[in-house]
Structure to design on (607 residues):
């Protein structure tokens, strides 16, 4: 390369660095980000302004600007109600139940299906396992309302084997467990996909070497397969932390009824029923704000931990 | 492949095949049962006889539903929502992912990324969301179903990580030839990203088809409900007034089989797409796990 060439390139770089060419070339980038910016401002950030009503006695006729400020009154009221503690407890209980049972079921399913050697059988079972994932909770909930009814097919099956009929959705003591099992039923196959992907990355040579050394199948599963997917299990468990205050709003909304509010009412259903339908906007916003803040802290924490311990990075 | 010949191992295999077969059946039996109920008549469903096969086969349930004006109107609203919502969301995904995927920094890029991330992680909650849509005058319009979901941060992240894995030489060569960012995105990036685009489009379309709660809040009249929200009125709220105005017909039909038929109709598009869903969704799930 001649000296002139190098000089020209250097000069060109200089122009780039000093700007105008580069700025002009970047104009399309800003135009591309414009729709998302508008969308975010209108539908993500503008609603946050509405959170102010958590500190007001909001009156829809007066609007946010003219409604009287009441400081932390809504929060005091919230914690003075005995219902509130019950709702938080229900939410946590159902969410933790779903996370634990759901993850265990997904891991077990992945381990078992990984042992199937007949390819068409494996594929068929896997396809069937996540068909329910694609149904909305309204649809699957509608199906459950039918099959779990007192005269539904599940109770008919129980009667045939001589068991008493169960009031799955109508008894407060059974409702949370029904929610956990129903959610696991709908999602275990989908949840297993990520573990199956992790399983394929385990080196088959490890298994062969262990088999040569006389390790049985059970032993290999315990000391090769399971450790192989442990990082994924830890990652998924960490990421689910941010979810503990959610517990699955749409599912509960479809399936619950006044008879099971005591054990089945969660934060989101309470905000909808008491806040929005019951016109207690400020109280509902206060409960929602508390959930958002705690949820945000937990998610941020879980992302930080995932990054720290599993080297997982979302952006 | 390691072959096992011990008795324990064979027993395990036998158990495993049977157990997983049962599990697979467990996932489709609700659908089969509902299908059977939907084709059965009132006598059979009230006597509770139907298991996996229709009894006193009838298509009356479907006829009644498909004759219903509100059902068809809601179906149309759903179609408009899916098409419009998916188009807008995907456009935003593509346009936003491109600038963020570039390795070069430009003013405001980091700020934008954090703003996007915060928008995903911190939600204002139901009531502020409702108040915002009200003050934007979107209540009771189809836009209230389409626009609020236009920025799907997670899908944008997936698209960014896909763009980043495209060979950079292509874009560099095009830049040297004087191509603008627009032509790099639309002429080079997009044709190479068809698998990712197909996956995310399907994701978004299914999301829109399955969404029902938002319309329950933003629509003031059930006339404007999309299909699944309309089904909510009969499935959950048990209100058949809009479906069964005709008393003579309702004597032959049971609410239970009508509900079942509606569930089947609302599930049909998903099941029809299922072969594609399966192929792309699984690919998409692993797409998302790629580190940026």
């Amino acid at each position: 390369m001649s000296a002139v060439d190098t000089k020209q390139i250097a000069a060109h770089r200089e122009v780039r660095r000093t700007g105008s060419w580069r700025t002009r070339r970047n104009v399309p980038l800003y135009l591309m980000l414009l729709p998302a910016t508008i969308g975010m401002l209108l539908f993500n950030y503008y609603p946050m302004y509405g959170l102010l009503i958590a500190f007001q006695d909001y009156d829809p006729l007066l609007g946010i600007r003219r409604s009287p400020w009441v400081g932390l009154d809504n929060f005091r009221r919230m914690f003075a109600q005995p219902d509130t503690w019950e709702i938080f407890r229900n939410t946590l209980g159902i969410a933790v139940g779903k996370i634990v049972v759901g993850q265990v079921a997904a891991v077990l399913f992945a381990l078992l299906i990984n042992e199937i050697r007949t390819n068409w059988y494996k594929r068929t079972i896997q396809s069937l396992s996540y068909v329910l994932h694609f149904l909305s909770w309204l649809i699957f909930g509608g199906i459950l309302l039918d099959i779990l009814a007192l005269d539904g097919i599940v109770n008919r099956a129980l009667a045939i084997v001589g068991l008493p009929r169960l009031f799955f959705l109508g008894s407060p003591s059974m409702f949370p467990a029904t929610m956990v099992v129903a959610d696991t039923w709908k999602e275990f196959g989908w949840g297993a996909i990520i573990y199956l992907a992790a399983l394929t990355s385990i080196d088959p040579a490890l298994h062969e070497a262990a088999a040569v050394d006389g390790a049985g199948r059970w032993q290999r599963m315990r000391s090769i397969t399971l450790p192989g997917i442990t990082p994924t299990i830890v990652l998924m468990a960490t990421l689910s932390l941010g979810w503990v205050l959610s517990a699955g709003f749409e599912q509960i909304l479809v399936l619950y009824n006044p008879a099971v509010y005591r054990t089945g009412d969660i934060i989101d259903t309470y905000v909808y029923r008491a806040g929005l339908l019951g016109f207690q906007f400020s109280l509902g916003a206060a409960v929602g704000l508390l959930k958002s803040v705690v949820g945000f802290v937990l998610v941020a924490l879980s992302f930080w931990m995932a990054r720290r311990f599993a080297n997982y990075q979302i952006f | 492949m390691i072959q096992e010949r011990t008795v324990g191992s064979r027993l395990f295999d036998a158990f495993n095949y049977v157990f997983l077969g049962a599990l697979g059946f467990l996932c489709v039996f609700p659908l089969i049962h509902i299908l059977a109920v939907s084709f059965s008549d009132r006598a059979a469903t009230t006597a509770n006889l139907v298991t996996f096969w229709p009894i006193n086969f009838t298509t009356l349930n479907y006829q009644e539903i498909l004759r219903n004006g509100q059902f068809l109107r809601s179906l149309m609203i759903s179609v408009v929502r899916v098409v419009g919502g998916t188009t807008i969301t995907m456009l935003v995904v593509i346009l936003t992912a491109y600038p963020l995927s570039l390795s070069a920094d430009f003013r405001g890029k980091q700020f934008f990324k954090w703003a996007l991330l915060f928008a995903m992680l911190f939600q204002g909650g139901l009531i502020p969301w409702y108040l915002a849509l009200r003050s934007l005058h979107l209540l009771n319009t189809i836009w209230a179903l389409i626009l609020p979901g236009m920025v799907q941060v997670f899908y944008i992240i997936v698209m960014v990580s896909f763009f980043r894995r495209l060979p950079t030489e292509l874009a560099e060569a095009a830049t040297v030839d004087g191509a603008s960012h627009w032509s790099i995105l639309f002429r080079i990036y997009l044709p190479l990203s068809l698998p990712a685009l197909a996956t995310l489009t399907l994701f978004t379309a299914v999301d829109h088809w399955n969404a029902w709660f938002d319309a329950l809040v933003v629509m003031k009249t059930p006339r404007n409900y999309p299909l699944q929200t309309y089904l909510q009125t009969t499935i959950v709220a048990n209100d058949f007034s809009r479906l069964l105005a005709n008393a003579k017909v309702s004597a032959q039909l049971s609410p239970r089989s009508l509900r079942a038929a509606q569930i089947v109709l609302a599930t049909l598009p998903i099941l029809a797409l299922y072969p594609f869903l399966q192929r792309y969704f699984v690919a998409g799930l692993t797409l998302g796990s790629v580190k940026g």
